[in-house]
Each structure stands twice: as C-alpha cells, then as structure tokens.
Amino acid sequence: MSNTAKLLEGAMRWWSARGGIIASNVARADIPGERSRDFAQTLAEHVRNPAPAKLGLAATDAGHRIGRLAEADRLAKVAEERNGSVISGNEISVEDEMMKLAEVASQHQLAAATYRKNVSLLRLALRGGR
C-alpha cells in the first residue's frame, strides 16, 4: 500500500474519532456539569503553550514566590468565566458542537474522496493506462 493511502486512512480514522467525541458532547448536552471535549483543541493548546518542564516549589510560607502554577490557575479561572455555563448547568453548546461536526464530516468526506481517487489512479497504472 502506498504512503499516500496510509496517510489518507489515518486521516479518515482521525476525523472519525473526532466526530465520535463531538457526537458524545451533543449526547451529554443535557447533563449538568458536563464540559465540551475535543481532542484537537486540547492538543493545539498544549502545542501552543507546553507545560513547564519543571514545577515550581510549593509556597509553604507567605514570603515564598508562587511561580507559574498560580498563573495557570488564574488563566483557568479566566477561561471558565469567559465560557460560562448554559441553562442546563453545563458548558456544552449544541450549536457549536453541530458546527464542529459539520466541519469534521466535510473533512472526512474530502479524505475519503481523495482516497478513492488514489485507488482509481493505482488501478489505472496497474492496467497500463487502459
């Protein structure tokens, strides 16, 4: 199997898995306290802002410096305040999840169409151009 075919199969598996996660978000939209999960967003955040290699020392005295952990907690609180909760008590927006799901479906269809085209080109090459 060609490298292109392997790459396209991996892409289709990726989009299928991401679609499953987004669909589970929609299914959990009525459960209080639930949050939206999306592997792609989490991965992108960690790539942009990698965790520090070493954790700072614990602040056991009022004179100790807090360090990066306090900044991370502050940023997490800001993100929570910005996102807010909906009426059901969770942070899952069905509209946002459906938009993500539509994007995932179109990307999966593109990968599948490219895979089909790749297979047809391989068949054409094997037949000798006939």
Key features of this structure:
mainly alpha; 4 helices; elongated
How is this structure best described in words?
α1 packs antiparallel against α4 (94-127). This protein is mostly helical. It is built from 4 helices and no strands. The chain is 65% helix and 0% strand. The protein has helices at 3-27, 39-48, 68-83, 94-127. The two termini are 21 Å apart. The protein has one domain (3-127). The longest helix has 34 residues, at 94-127.
- How would you state the average pLDDT, rounded? 76
Could you state the order of secondary-structure elements as H and E?
HHHH
Low-pLDDT segments: none
How far apart are the termini? 21 Å
> Which range does the strand content fall in?
under 5%
Tell me about the biggest sheet?
none
Structural class: mainly alpha
Number of strands: 0
Radius of gyration: 22 Å
- Count of folded domains: 1
Number of helices: 4
**Based on CA inertia axes, which overall geometry fits?**
elongated
Percent helix: 55-70%
* Oligomer class: single chain
